[in-house]
Amino acid sequence: MNAELDRAVAILKDAKKLVVSTGAGMSRDSGVPTFRDAMTGLWSRFDPHELANAQAFSRNPARVFGWYLWRWNLVHQAQPHSGYHALVHMQDAFEELLVVTQNVDGFHRRSGSRDVVELHGSLEAFRCFDNGHEYDSVGLTGLEAGADGEVDPPRCSICGSAIRPGVVWFGETLPKEPVERAWAAVGQCDALLVVGTSAVVYPAAELPSIALRRGCPVIDVNPDSTPLTNDVDVWIPERAEVALPALADLLLTSS
Ligand code: APR
Predict the structure, then answer these.
(1) Is the Cβ–Cβ distance between 51 and 64 less than 8 Å?
(2) DSSP class of residue 14?
(3) If you average pLDDT over residues 83-111, what whole number do you get?
(4) Is a pLDDT exceeding 80 seen at residue 224?
């Protein structure tokens, strides 16, 4: 990995504006499952058609709400690993460092990243299904659900509609402001660091191509190859928890 690290740090040292684009693999080392890893990925254990779209929620709100409650508790019991803290330590080495994440676990904010956009929403942002009235997740404290559990969703105090998670479900559009910020940042950054994504879900998967088309160097941290691997400038075939602290150490100690 040393040769790739050296090449990646050379790119980062020349960059003033860095975008870090993360996927579920970024949280794998904190014990939060990815979606598409064979055997352990959520989509190898659960059916996204039954859990991650509005129609599924209308059909069986208790099952969908139970599954997200399980994930909400899971991320609350987990901690951002040292790779998250490495990104925080790197912040002051750049004029701008924007984290663009597909993840809904809130770990980048929890670990102290100052500038984060969440393309797929957040497990913390519960709202009512019919009208989008915000629901404070404090109301869920103490509520438990197994991965296969069913929990009747609370009701909106304003309109009585069922409460849903504030994540972007399949078939739903991404939030406007995070998308505008992410696409604008990737359109002008000096380097793009991609961490832990299979790069198959659009529109987020478009970001590396936007950078590559404009000649912006792209570094990919992923223990497995993806559709990105052959196109990026540097592929670091390592776990985020190992690669990111090593990158930060090299970047922050080299003259
Ligand atoms: N460190 C870095 N990368 C890792 C690690 C790790 N420790 N472990 C696994 N990975 C890589 C896997 O090799 C895979 O390429 O992380 C990637 C995870 O891919 P996915 O599970 O597809 O997650 P992601 O790319 O974020 O999925 C995008 O799909 O289901 C939707 O909304 C969901 O946001 C999600 C989107």
Answers:
(1) yes
(2) H
(3) 98
(4) yes
